[in-house]
């Protein structure tokens, strides 16, 4: 019995041992099969991801599949794709399975006699079935990884297959990782093999897939703008330097176009952040559609784009590209049932003429853009050698202007205004001048626009108003002083109060003060502006519409606000000699309109006796111009000299010639 029992126990133990061994062997066998299966799945996912990424990044993939040689940009992207992951070989086949392009460690070859059938009959079925196919292999050939996967991915566009992309992915590291993890799991808890295998399998597969997607996304975000998908600044410059390396005096050149959306900040405040982002994406999409496949686009700032136009053989090509960009980008954008129209400024620079490095070329295109913006925008321009010097002068003027504003280092000139009825001076217009620091004066046409951009006009305008009133107090009663107001002086809403303070401080009678505005102020259609104008008029000062006739819709403003006087722009006098009869009719009609509205009318820019005599039939109230005196630098004109001026100015009418009259001096 004991023998039997011993033999039975021995057989049982042996059976258990054999079963255990068989179980362990089976576990390892199952583990091995699972490892191979998981590697295949991981390889398929990894290969498919990279094949899709590569296919999406090649704009001329269909043309390559049709036999067209790839562009330089495509070759760069293939090499970039290979460098970003574990891809070591790429092939492109046409719809019939014929190899069209191969990129591996030996380089890039175009077209070969090899077909999908040469690889594997199952691979050839990709064309017929339209489904991807992946095969995992052990590397035996020299230079191949120990384990690698090959995926054949059909590429579709507009519902039709255009090519098959094959990628070879190194899976050796992944295979080692799977085997090590699953072997340890099989040895440690072989009785729970199924449970322990399923968990790590899905976990590792998710990890591998997440890692691959994360790596691809990180690489993309490192080189592209997250909002538009365009190249970011650093990636754009890197690409630009790479292209510039092949540019010489005899080879095709390159142009950089720096694009800025005019007035986008104000528009963005109206649209809100979401619609603004949508608008920027639409602009970027149109820019990308307008350029060629060998060109590339980047985003420099919130509303600024950079375009590199490659293969340039003439300046005319760059100009044509700018014209196409302006035309396409300026077309209306439909946003939430609104048609948004944008205006653009573009600055351009050429290589190798203007610069040979990426940063210098972008800088000069940006400098050209800055000049366009400073000139008012809505235009295009190319870099010129003089721009550097002009920009330096602008910086010097900006420093001089800031210093003058801080220290009130301005000068007021005064130009007389003649009464037609009495032939005497009845007022002066205060004109601002800026000393250049070297004994000369800076032209107002040069420094006033800059002062407006710098936000200095409210401060400067306040100084002009105060000094003009101080000067006028010294003049005889009845002589008025006219001062110009800028639109920016109305922004704070405190202008009427400040004018009241100045009148009180200087003692000037309100009736002697004339405040001149232009229609630019009224274009805003702002009730706060109209309210301030009414308050100013309530103080007793006169409100004058200046430069009448030079804008777009001046007539509509004459009934919106009851002006006391209007001043007809000097441009009519400038055109007098060419169109005397026409100008005469327009002036007569305008003066009649002003009188019908109980407004006095002044004509500016009168420079000759001929013009003055011709205006006798116009019946205007006042005349102003060089004929009656140039702007005078003496701020405080003594009463005796002013009276002498009033007596001597009548001599002007005694000149018999029709040329320029002599200017009457007050010194």
Task: Tell me about this structure.
With 667 residues, the protein is of the alpha/beta class. The chain has three domains: 29-220, PAS domain (Beta-Lactamase, 2-Layer Sandwich), CATH 3.30.450; 233-384, Reverse transcriptase/Diguanylate cyclase domain (Alpha-Beta Plaits), CATH 3.30.70; 395-652, EAL domain (TIM Barrel, Alpha-Beta Barrel). It is built from 23 helices and 22 strands. The strands form four sheets. An eight-stranded mixed beta barrel has the order 14-15-17-18-19-20-21-22. Helix 22 (609-614) links the parallel strand 21 and strand 22. Helix 1 (2-57) packs parallel to helix 7 (193-223) and helix 10 runs antiparallel to helix 11. The model is unreliable at 1-6, 12-17 and 655-667 (pLDDT under 50).
What are the key terms here?
667 residues; TIM Barrel; 3 domains; 8-stranded mixed barrel; 6-stranded antiparallel sheet; disordered C terminus
Estimate the mean pLDDT confidence: 81
How many alpha or pi helices? 23
The CATH H-level homologous superfamily of the largest domain: EAL domain
Approximate shape: elongated
Q: What is the CATH-assigned architecture of the largest domain?
A: Alpha-Beta Barrel
Number of domains: 3
Structural class: alpha/beta
Order of strands across the main sheet: 14-15-17-18-19-20-21-22
Oligomeric state of shown chains: single chain
Strand percentage: 15-25%
The third-level CATH topology of the largest domain is: TIM Barrel
Range of helix content: 40-55%
CATH class of the largest domain: Alpha Beta
Uncertain segments are 1-6, 12-17, 655-667
Beta strands, count: 22
Work out the radius of gyration.
41 Å
Cα distance spanning the termini: 150 Å
Largest sheet: 8 strands, mixed, barrel
């Amino acid at each position: 019995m004991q023998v039997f029992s011993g033999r039975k126990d021995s057989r049982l133990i042996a059976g258990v041992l054999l079963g255990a061994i068989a179980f362990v062997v089976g576990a390892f066998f199952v583990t091995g099969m699972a490892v191979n299966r998981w590697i295949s799945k991981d390889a398929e996912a990894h290969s498919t991801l990279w094949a899709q990424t590569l296919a999406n990044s090649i704009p001329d993939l269909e043309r390559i599949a049709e036999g067209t040689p790839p562009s330089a940009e495509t070759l760069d992207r293939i090499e970039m794709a290979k460098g970003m992951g574990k891809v070591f070989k790429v092939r492109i086949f046409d719809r019939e399975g014929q190899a069209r392009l191969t990129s591996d460690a030996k380089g890039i070859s175009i077209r070969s006699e090899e077909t999908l059938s040469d690889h594997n009959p199952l691979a050839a079925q990709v064309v017929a079935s339209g489904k991807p196919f992946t095969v995992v292999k052990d590397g035996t050939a020299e230079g191949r990884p120990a384990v690698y996967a090959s995926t054949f991915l059909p590429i579709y566009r507009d519902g039709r297959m255009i090519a098959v992309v094959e990628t070879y992915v190194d899976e050796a590291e992944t295979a080692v990782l799977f085997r090590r993890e699953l072997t340890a799991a099989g040895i440690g808890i072989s009785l729970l093999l199924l449970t322990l295998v399923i968990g790590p399998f899905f976990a590792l597969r998710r990890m591998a897939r997440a890692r691959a997607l994360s790596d691809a996304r990180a690489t993309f975000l490192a080189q592209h703008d997250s909002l538009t998908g365009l190249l970011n600044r650093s990636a754009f410059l890197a690409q630009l330097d790479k292209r510039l390396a092949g540019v010489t005096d005899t080879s095709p050149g390159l142009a950089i176009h720096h694009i800025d959306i005019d007035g986008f900040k104000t528009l963005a405040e109206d649209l809100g952040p979401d619609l603004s982002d949508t608008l920027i994406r639409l602009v970027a999409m149109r820019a990308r559609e307008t350029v060629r496949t060998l060109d590339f686009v980047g985003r420099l700032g919130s509303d600024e784009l950079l375009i590199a136009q490659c293969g340039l053989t003439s300046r005319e090509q760059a100009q044509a590209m700018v014209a196409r960009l302006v035309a396409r980008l300026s077309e209306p954008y439909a946003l939430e049932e609104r048609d948004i129209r944008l205006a653009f400024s573009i600055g351009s620079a050429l290589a190798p003429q203007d610069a040979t490095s990426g940063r210098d070329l972008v800088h000069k295109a940006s400098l050209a853009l800055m000049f366009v913006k400073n000139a008012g925008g809505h235009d295009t321009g190319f870099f010129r050698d003089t721009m550097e010097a002009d920009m330096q002068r602008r910086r010097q003027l900006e420093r001089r202007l800031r210093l003058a504003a801080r220290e009130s280092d301005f000068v007021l000139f005064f130009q007389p205004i003649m009464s037609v009825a009495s032939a005497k001076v009845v007022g002066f217009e205060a004109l601002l001048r800026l000393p250049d620091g070297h004994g000369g004066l800076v032209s107002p046409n040069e420094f006033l626009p800059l002062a407006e951009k710098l936000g200095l006009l409210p401060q400067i305008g306040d100084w002009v108003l105060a000094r003009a009133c101080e000067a006028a107090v010294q003049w005889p009663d009845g002589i008025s002083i006219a001062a110009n107001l800028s639109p920016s002086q109305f922004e704070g809403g405190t202008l009427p109060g400040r004018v009241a303070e100045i009148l009180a401080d200087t003692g000037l009678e309100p009736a002697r003060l004339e405040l001149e505005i232009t229609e630019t102020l009224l274009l805003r259609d702002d009730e706060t502006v109209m309210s301030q104008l009414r308050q100013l008029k309530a103080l007793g000062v006169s409100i004058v519409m200046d430069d009448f006739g030079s804008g777009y819709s001046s007539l509509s403003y004459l009934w919106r606000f009851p002006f006391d006087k209007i001043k007809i722009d000097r441009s009519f006098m400038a055109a007098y000699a060419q169109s005397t009869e026409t100008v005469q009719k327009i002036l007569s009609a305008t003066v009649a309109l002003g009188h019908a509205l109980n407004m006095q009318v002044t004509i500016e820019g009168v420079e000759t006796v001929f013009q003055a005599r011709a205006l006798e039939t116009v019946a205007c109230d006042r005349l102003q111009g060089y004929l009656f005196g140039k702007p005078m630098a003496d701020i405080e004109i003594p009463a005796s000299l002013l009276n002498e001026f009033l007596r001597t100015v009548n001599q002007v009418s005694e000149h018999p010639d029709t040329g320029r009259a002599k200017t009457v001096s007050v010194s």
